[in-house]
Amino acid sequence: MNREEIDRTILSIIEPFNKKGVQITDSTTFAGDLEFDSLTVMDFVAEIEDSFDIIISMNQQAEIENYGQLVDAVNKLQGE
């Protein structure tokens, strides 16, 4: 999958979690813009991991603050 395909897939996954209907861009933050709490983050990450058959470590999760970083991380993990 290329970055564009990953982006489209994650956008479809994030839709039910985006309760406020925030416009998603690479700079959209999960905590600030989307107001994800820790439980929402866990559920969202589980969906991402299942969809892409990857594992996002706790250390990686801590470094991912915005949507663009998530797409890049999934893209990198897909290549490993």
Structure description:
There is one protein chain. The protein is mainly alpha-helical and 80 residues long. The longest helix has 15 residues. It is globular. The mean pLDDT is 96.
SSE diagram, text form:
Elements: H1 3-14, H2 38-52, H3 58-63, H4 67-79
Helix pairs in contact: 1-2, 1-4
What would the average pLDDT be, to the nearest integer?
96
Strand content: under 5%
Spans of at least 5 consecutive residues with low confidence: none
Give the end-to-end Cα distance, rounded to a whole number of Å: 12 Å
Supply Rg: 11 Å
Helix run count: 4
CATH topology, which one?
Non-ribosomal Peptide Synthetase Peptidyl Carrier Protein, Chain A
- What is the architecture at the second tier of CATH? Orthogonal Bundle
Number of strands: 0
Backbone structural class: mainly alpha
CATH superfamily, by name, is ACP-like
Task: Kindly provide the name of the CATH class.
Answer: Mainly Alpha
SSE string, helices as H and strands as E = HHHH
Largest sheet: none
Shape: globular
Number of domains: 1
The helical percent reads 55-70%
